[in-house]
Write a structure and sequence with these properties.
The structure is a homodimer. By secondary structure, chain A is of the alpha/beta class. Chain A has 2 domains: about 10-255, Dihydropteroate synthase-like (TIM Barrel), CATH 3.20.20; about 265-365, Sulfite Reductase Hemoprotein, domain 1. Helices cover about 45% and strands about 20% of the residues of chain A. The first copy, chain A, contains 13 helices and 17 strands. In chain A, strands 3-4-5-6-7-8-9-10 form an 8-stranded parallel beta barrel, surrounded by 8 helices. In chain A, helix 12 links the parallel strand 13 and strand 14. The two termini of chain A are about 30 Å apart. Chains A and B meet through helix 8, helix 9, helix 10, strand 11 and helix 11 of A and helix 8, helix 9, helix 10, strand 11 and helix 11 of B.
Chain lengths: ~375, ~375
């Protein structure tokens, strides 16, 4: 059951309230180099990015932000860490949203300036709490009240985000989404669950400083995935120390893995075992290459699941949910099956050719 | 809070009852080639595998199983899919456990044969339910009772596993662990939660047919990770269509990502952004290479977390939990910090040298 959150818009992208979970990233070239930023945004959009965040650190970034916001195919969120003035300038420049954190501007006069600018420009606000935005005193209080260090941090993060959301509401701002991130996955999940149970603001999910691609994808998949499986989360960003396009691929895999937005067709393959009589990784690679070839020629495959299995045990039986499947047999034959029904067994290359034809029968012009 | 499960032993490895979560894999060379199987087990053990599963499909596999069980550094679980007789022969040959599924031998006479053999050999049983072992009629019943297709499958999987565990208990077997796997992550998580709430048998976690490494790691991280974060799970296997050693690396990353068994030191790094003035992926790679170099010379680093950050914003603040950290600044300097305290800023190469020395001060002979 998906959490019921209120719907806001970041530019033309709906977030929350039943809208599809959207994918975000952040540019990592200097903001003042508007051409480089726009080039990166194009590549990200082509990969599937739907909302883009750009760092603004100084009011001098404003002219570049203006060009970026005008030319970007995606709504731009101005990321403010150092200077509130630069955030206000970014809203003036056309940013669809501004990202602030409770540590930057508190809940007083500075927040009122942000709220007024956001209302004037019909923009949205992302309240982004992370471990760096919590006052150590808050954590100490919670520990004194009997919480473990992790519980204290999770509660303090959630409370800080909620307090800033409430302060913004009192200032008349309702287009608010929140992001609560820690580099510890368990703390991230606990803090988001706590927040989700206490209000209806849409949530942006992510694990902060997830690390290098190999480890970062795993940490993000656990944290973002655990929350999405619980029905929590309206937009996601996978943080990786890598080309941001990798973040989009990882985000798509997480959404697909959670069954939220399946990559079509999803390829199901078994781990090989002592029963495997064929080169299964090689066969899977052939299937992936075939689908990739179709994609790069602007076509998709109208099938939900394609199974590639090592042996007939796990073939038609375990993969009965697959629309089309292929399984090796001990004597290097290929068994082809469709929705759990075996169509036949063929010598390897003949079987591959037949499977390829069956798959191509489902090729369609792809929809963007 | 971790689920309280009963403790069993698979060979000398405790599973459940507060034992550390163990890592498993399965050999994928023909079982009759005992040398090849043993070679693979050695490589898997060196990578961190603690329990190994080997397919037995025919009684003719028994002599090879005998050699494998005698020489294996890891306890061997015999995987039975086709022939119950081969499983009984594997127990005779010295397997520490046998893996059966509710679809193979039901809960009647055949199960009694398994139970008697397990008791005679002081072995354990893994009840492994997957989507292939459920009778379609069971699912139809649940759907008729108002469940969705996914709920029906999750409940049927959990119920089938539990029924077989209960049947085994009635036959006097208590060393039982269960594995409930589907290729759909949400169904896997729901089925395991249901089972976990109804009994105290330890759980082996995994997502079946997770697929190629790229997608399989993501699906496994979500499914296994979501359950581990809930305190459910006593031993894990990541299924990948790849060299099984890759499964061990992935399993280690998942345990580390959940904070259960952190790779030491854990490397925290930020995604780069417009503020990054240095080649952060390059710097992270240097840090990883340094730690890998120590590992391959039999040393470890006595630090829990090392942070490698792109800019001073996310440096000492967000990474205050890091024992040692390094952050780039816009003018290509490196800022070094220890437990949130800045030690100083240095020209890039000088800073790297200083950081390297500080890290090496914590190098210790590693414990296996």
């Amino acid at each position: 059951m998906r959490r019921t959150s209120r719907q806001i818009f970041v530019g033309n992208v709906p977030v929350g309230g039943g809208a599809p979970v959207s994918i975000q990233s952040m540019t990592n070239v200097p903001t003042r180099d508007a051409d480089a930023v726009l080039g990166q945004i194009s590549r990200l959009a082509a990969a599937g990015c739907q909302i883009i965040r750009v760092a603004v650190d100084a009011v001098e970034d404003a002219p570049a932000m203006k060009r970026i916001c005008e030319a970007s195919p995606l709504p731009v969120v101005a990321d403010v860490q150092f200077s509130l003035a630069s955030g206000l300038a970014a809203l003036e420049a056309g940013a669809a949203a501004i990202r602030i954190n409770p540590g930057l501007c508190g809940n007083g006069d500075e927040l009122k300036q942000v709220a007024d600018a956001v209302l004037r420009h019909h923009a949205a606000i992302r309240v982004g709490a992370n471990s760096g935005s919590i006052k150590p005193a808050r954590i100490a209080e919670k520990i004194a009240a009997g919480r473990s260090g992790e519980e204290a941090l999770a509660e303090a993060l959630s409370d800080a985000a909620l307090a800033q959301c409430e302060a913004l509401e009192r200032l008349g701002v309702h287009s608010i989404k929140a992001a609560i991130k820690a580099s510890d996955v368990g703390i991230t999940v606990a803090a988001n669950r706590r927040f989700a149970a206490r209000c209806d603001h849409p949530l942006h999910l992510g694990v902060t400083e997830a690390g290098t691609p190999a480890m970062g994808i795993v940490k993000s998949a656990i944290g973002i995935g655990a929350l999405l499986l619980d029905g929590i989360g309206d937009t996601i960003r996978v943080s990786l120390t890598a080309d941001p396009v990798e973040e989009i691929y990882a985000a798509r895999k997480i959404l697909s893995g959670c069954g939220i937005r399946r990559e079509r067709p999803e390829i199901i393959s078994c781990p090989t075992c002592g029963r495997t009589g064929i080169d299964l990784p090689g066969l899977v690679a052939r299937v992936e290459a075939l689908i990739e070839e179709l994609r790069s020629s602007g076509r998709g495959v109208e099938l939900d699941r394609v199974a590639v299995m090592g042996c007939p045990v796990n073939g038609p039986g375990e993969a009965r949910g697959a629309d089309l499947g292929i399984a090796g047999s001990r004597n290097r034959e290929l068994v082809i099956f469709e929705k759990g029904k075996v169509l036949g067994a063929y010598p390897f290359e003949q079987g591959w050719k037949h499977f390829r034809e069956l798959l191509l029968e489902h090729a369609v012009p792809s929809q963007k």
